[in-house]
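Quick one, tokens below. Sequence please?
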């Protein structure tokens, strides 16, 4: 088995003794991080010191002579001596003034990241800090200079001063103020969409304040001209205090009659009459105080003033209380909102079938004629019109055997001679024959119409995939968690990419970023690039790929799949400790405080791996790709890792028996030949589809014909934009380092410890020498072990000289010819 690192020979002696890893090790990172942290603290000290000692050092610093920085005469007053004085002078005087403090602050963050104390996206912080520093430097120079005019340095530094002078020469002082204001708001809006609300409130404070006080007129008065409100006599003055937790529902009000509510929010005339249900309208989340005014002339108003949130009683929350409150798995992003349906496009006549009686009658006549010409008489014929296909359901006359019709299937299809005719003889569960005929005017099934359906909105599925509509116009949905892996095939241009996008979109509409992560593999580099924007929210990747989490490169795919194997093993270990059978049980235990967090338990998000152009990958990386995929497919279901793999070329070389056996869910778009259809569906049919999203879905029994929902790139961009405006994770989920990596275990030059050999080492050596076959999959099968462990065993065998190095997907060369030679070698190893 080809293994990435182990077959690489060290280039030089330094590398052989492990020098190569010196800049790549945790220890080095930690120490470098510590250095940065201390450097930043030193910088802060000297900068603070500069505030008081800068004046004294100024003349020395202004005319610094060569070599003076060595400071042999201890002339500098700065607490950090000469270096400190120069550093502070350069940062604060020459460059950015007071905002220079952001430089050591950023270095502290970088240090903490290197020491693995915090996980942050350093580039984002770098650009953010730079922007804030430059902006503040100019702002300070503009607005603080008049106040701190006599100070030793300009509050915005020479940089700020220079920018202010130049910009004011061009746009004048008001222009500069506008620029500064705009850049600040633009930056804050980029950081959080809430800025828009704050600005709106700031610009319309009256509306904001009045919306806090809600005026409603309830039915205590007879009808007036302006308001069509039923009221009853109520002369008594009463001022009632609501019970603390009470909900104010006026007595004698029939429950089902909604109370009309006049919204007087704008203090003007009555502008609208609402008839919503009373409790919903008069009761904000907070409790309400009700005042019934009895002034004879005044309208009987119920004035509700929203109270402040109730204060905590200051008592300590005891541990039982904490344990009885389930953990919210959506924390800390509980305010994240799933995308809304208005982001998706609507079409005229959206997915509703266009019933064209002329067309139906013509088809009917042709079908009857053709069947009669083959001697099949018909008792009844029924047409069901779908968005793109009409199903003609034929009940044959008494005595006609269905098997006869089945044998005539091809002839009938040929005689009807329309593209996309499929004959189902018989329709499962019925004694009828189905003939599917494409409509002249196919309708687009929009994603909106599918996601807006009750079926999707109310589904309890764990990973619902809303794929489209069936011939009978029903929304077609499947649960990826149950399938549990899906194989998608279809010739080019038949709707595969749209289908994958429909799958991803339906998951994005149902899942929170804490509940689901995608691993997207896109060898074509253009299919999934549109999802790059939401990678922090919804992607999982290896740490080295966190800038480019959508994988386009074959070697990265192998590493990522091996990493997923590692994650799968780790999740199984956690499940075992937790005594849970699957991810659902595990997460339920986690949420209900039944797991000991010190044992490494954490909420498990589902992981959906979507691989486009799987054929290309298999052709380039062969078994290296196939084995981890097969392993994940065999085992990962219980731990919430699911795969969707797509290919244009459904040949047996690509969809091998191993893959096929482990991917029970099949989604076939139109393919070019019957053989391809048989490869993907184990029957013909996919070659008779009409393309443009027409598909057959198979999961077990009979395939279902579905018109795939259409989702276009601008719609996906809208969804991504919406997601990005929500509070959410700041970086992709990190996958573990793959266990078969040369740096992380496995045996490689320089770190062999014979006592650490795999317990199967000797048995595996005998098996290989006896069979003279250096194959990892043979080891896997023989000892029923995983791919990673078998790979490590092979590396150990290579290291002691039993097999040669890996040669791509070919078996390794066996270097020991017979058992005697092997026994001698093993004895030597034992005695070492
Ligand atoms: N469900 C659908 N409804 C309507 N039209 C569709 C649908 N799916 C695909 N199409 C049409 O077919 C075209 C090609 O679809 P798509 O890009 O998904 O094909 P593909 O199989 O991924 O092709 P390739 O393998 O070359 O990328 C789309 O641009 C669109 O016009």
């Amino acid at each position: 088995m080809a293994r990435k690192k182990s077959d690489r020979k060290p280039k030089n002696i330094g590398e052989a003794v492990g020098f190569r890893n010196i800049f790549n090790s945790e220890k080095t990172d930690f120490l470098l991080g510590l250095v940065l942290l201390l450097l930043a603290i030193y910088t802060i000290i000297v900068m603070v010191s500069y505030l008081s000692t800068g004046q004294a050092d100024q003349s020395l610093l202004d005319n610094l002579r060569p070599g003076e920085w060595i400071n042999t005469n201890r002339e500098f007053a700065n607490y950090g001596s000469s270096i400190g004085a120069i550093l502070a002078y350069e940062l604060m005087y020459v460059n950015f003034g007071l905002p220079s403090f952001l430089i050591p602050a950023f270095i502290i963050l970088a240090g903490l990241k290197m020491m693995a104390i915090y996980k942050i996206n350093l580039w984002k912080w770098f650009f953010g800090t730079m922007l804030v520093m430059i902006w503040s430097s100019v702002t300070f120079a503009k607005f603080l200079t008049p106040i701190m005019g006599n100070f030793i340095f300009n509050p915005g530094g020479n940089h700020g001063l220079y920018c202010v002078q130049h910009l004011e020469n061009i746009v004048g002082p008001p222009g500069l103020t506008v620029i500064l204001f705009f850049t600040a708001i633009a930056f804050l809006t980029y950081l959080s969409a809430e800025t828009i609300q704050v600005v709106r409130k700031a610009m319309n404070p009256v509306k904001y304040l009045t919306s806090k006080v809600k005026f409603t007129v309830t039915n205590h008065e007879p009808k007036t001209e302006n308001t069509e409100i039923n009221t009853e006599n109520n002369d008594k003055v009463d001022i009632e205090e609501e019970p603390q937790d009470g909900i104010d529902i006026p007595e004698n009000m029939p429950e089902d009659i909604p109370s009309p509510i006049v919204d007087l929010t704008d203090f003007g005339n009555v502008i609208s009459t609402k008839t919503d249900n009373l409790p919903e309208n008069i009761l904000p989340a907070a409790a309400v105080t009700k005042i019934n005014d009895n002034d004879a002339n005044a309208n009987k108003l119920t004035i509700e003033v929203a109270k402040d949130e109730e204060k905590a009683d200051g008592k300590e929350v005891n541990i039982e209380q904490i344990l009885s409150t389930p953990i919210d798995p959506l924390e800390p992003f509980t305010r994240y909102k799933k995308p809304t349906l208005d982001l998706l496009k609507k079409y005229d006549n959206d997915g509703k079938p266009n019933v064209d009686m002329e067309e139906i009658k013509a088809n009917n006549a042709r079908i009857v004629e053709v069947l009669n010409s083959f001697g099949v008489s018909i008792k009844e014929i029924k047409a069901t019109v779908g968005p793109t296909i009409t199903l003609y359901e034929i009940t044959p006359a008494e005595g006609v055997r269905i098997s006869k019709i089945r044998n005539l299937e091809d002839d009938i299809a040929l005689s009807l001679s329309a593209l996309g005719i499929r004959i189902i003889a018989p329709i499962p569960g019925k004694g009828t024959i189905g003939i599917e005929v494409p409509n002249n005017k196919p309708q687009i099934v929009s994603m909106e119409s599918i996601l807006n359906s009750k079926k999707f909105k109310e589904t309890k599925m764990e990973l619902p995939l809303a794929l489209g509509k069936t011939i009978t116009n029903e929304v077609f949905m499947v649960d990826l968690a149950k399938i549990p892996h899906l194989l998608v095939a279809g010739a080019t241009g038949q709707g595969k990419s749209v289908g994958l996008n429909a799958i991803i979109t339906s998951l994005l509409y149902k899942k929170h970023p804490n509940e689901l992560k995608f691993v997207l593999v896109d060898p074509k580099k253009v299919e999934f690039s549109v999802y790059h924007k939401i990678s922090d929210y919804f992607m999982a990747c290896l740490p080295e790929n966190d800038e480019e989490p959508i994988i386009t490169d074959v070697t990265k795919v192998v590493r990522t799949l091996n990493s997923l194997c590692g994650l799968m093993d780790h999740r199984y270990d956690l499940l075992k400790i937790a005594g849970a059978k699957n991810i659902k049980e595990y997460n339920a235990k986690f949420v209900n405080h039944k797991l000991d967090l010190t044992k490494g338990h954490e909420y498990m998000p589902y992981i959906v791996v979507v691989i486009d152009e799987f054929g290309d990958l298999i052709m380039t990386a062969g078994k290296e790709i196939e084995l981890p995929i097969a392993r994940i497919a065999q085992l990962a279901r219980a731990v919430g890792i699911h795969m969707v793999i797509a290919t244009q070329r459904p040949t047996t070389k690509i969809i091998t028996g191993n893959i096929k056996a482990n991917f029970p869910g099949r989604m076939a778009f139109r393919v070019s030949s019957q053989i391809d259809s048989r490869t993907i569906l184990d029957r013909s049919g996919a070659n008779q589809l009409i393309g443009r999203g027409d598909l057959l879905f198979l999961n077990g029994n009979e395939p279902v014909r579905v018109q795939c929902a259409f989702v276009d790139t601008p719609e996906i961009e809208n969804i991504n934009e919406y997601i990005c405006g929500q509070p959410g994770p700041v970086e992709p989920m990190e996958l573990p380092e793959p266990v078969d990596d040369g740096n992380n275990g496995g045996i490689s030059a320089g770190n062999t410890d014979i006592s650490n050999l795999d317990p199967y080492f000797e048995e595996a050596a005998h098996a290989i020498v006896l069979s003279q076959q250096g194959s990892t999959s043979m080891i896997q099968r023989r000892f029923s072990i995983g791919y990673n462990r078998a790979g490590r065993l092979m590396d150990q065998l290579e290291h002691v000289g039993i097999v040669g190095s890996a040669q791509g997907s070919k078996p390794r060369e066996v270097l020991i010819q017979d058992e005697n030679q092997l026994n001698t070698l093993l004895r030597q190893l034992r005695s070492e």
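The chain has five domains: 23-201, 212-309, 357-438, 447-651+663-734, 754-831. The first helix runs from residue 13 to 16.
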